[in-house]
Amino acid sequence: MPDDQDPLPYAASAAAAAAPPPIPPVTQGARDRTGLGILLMCATSLIFAVQDAFSRVLGSEYPPVLIVMLRYWVFALFVIALVSRQPGGLRRAIRTRRPKTQILRGAILVIEATIMIEAFVRLGLVGTHAIFTAYPLLVAALSGPILGEKVGWRRWTAIGVGFVGILIILRPGRTPLNLGAGMAFACALLFAVYGLLTRHVSRDDPAQVSFFWTGIAGAVTVTILGIREWEWLAPADWIWMALLCACGIASHWLLIRAYELAEASALQPFAYTQLVWVSVIGVTVFAEVLHLNVAIGAAIVVAAGLFTLWRARQKSIDAGRS
Question: Fewer beta carbons below 10 Å: N end or C end of the chain?
Answer without folding.
Answer: C
